[in-house]
Amino acid sequence: MSTAELHTLTGAYALHALPEDERVAFERHLGACEACAQEVRELSATAARLGLAVSATPPPALRERVLRKITTVRQEPPPHGRGARPTSSARRAGRWSTYALAACVAAAAAFGGVAVWQNQVAQDARQETDRAQRHNEQVARVLTAPDARTTAADLGDGARGTVVVSRSVNKAVFLASDMAHPPDGKVYQLWFDEGGTMRSAGLMNPAATDDAVLMDGPLDRASGMGITVEPAGGSDRPTSAPVALMEFETA
């Protein structure tokens, strides 16, 4: 994707509407383009205000509507006379009324279950969207910080790594491009280097060759970072030779 095309993605990025590959490419571009960074900040603020302006309360649940409908099903009257036996037509009508009521109850239960399931799915989707939005906002905050500093390194086999740090935000973002997949059962783990002591800074997505990772934990006194190959789930301390060691830009 050309630089000219990247300049046109600010609106889609602010609305979290970019596919994964374009999002990663744009975030790499965002770290070096102050014009796009400023536009993203302005568009994100506008989108947030518009979202608040159009918020609305959802309609009542389907389950409640079905339960109200059940109350309108007419019950068959009892047969006339204390000892009277119901006619065959009355018995059939009674059975059908019972079946109808049972069907309504079953429908209410089913619709109630579907409503609960749909509500849970919607809540899960909202939570996932919220997590992605918070991640993107934090990444953008680091990349667009006035004191953001960038360091890039060749990771071998055509792979490229870039780390952006902001002391004012106290966070770092690692951007990877064309990284080889780790071996089966392994994962790339990121580390903050604090005077030779390595502190875990999170795991990369083993399925992604291009990735934008908000490094876990505060920047604090870290002066650099490292990448190692670790067992799935990560390690408490590095267990392999580093794939890369990068010093943070300080000026």
TrEMBL record:
Keyword Transmembrane helix on entry: yes
Q: Residue ranges of the Anti-sigma K factor RskA C-terminal domain?
A: 105-243
Query: Which residue range or ranges hold the Anti-sigma-K factor RskA N-terminal domain?
Result: 6-43
UniProt keyword list: Cell membrane, Membrane, Transcription, Transcription regulation, Transmembrane, Transmembrane helix
Task: Report how it sits in the membrane.
Answer: Single-pass membrane protein
- Pfam short name (any one): RskA_C
Localization (cell): Cell membrane; Membrane
Q: What is its main location?
A: membrane
Zinc as a keyword of this entry, yes or no, is no
Q: In terms of domain of life, where is this protein from? A: Bacteria
> What protein name does the entry list?
Regulator of SigK
Q: Which organism is it from?
A: Streptomyces argenteolus
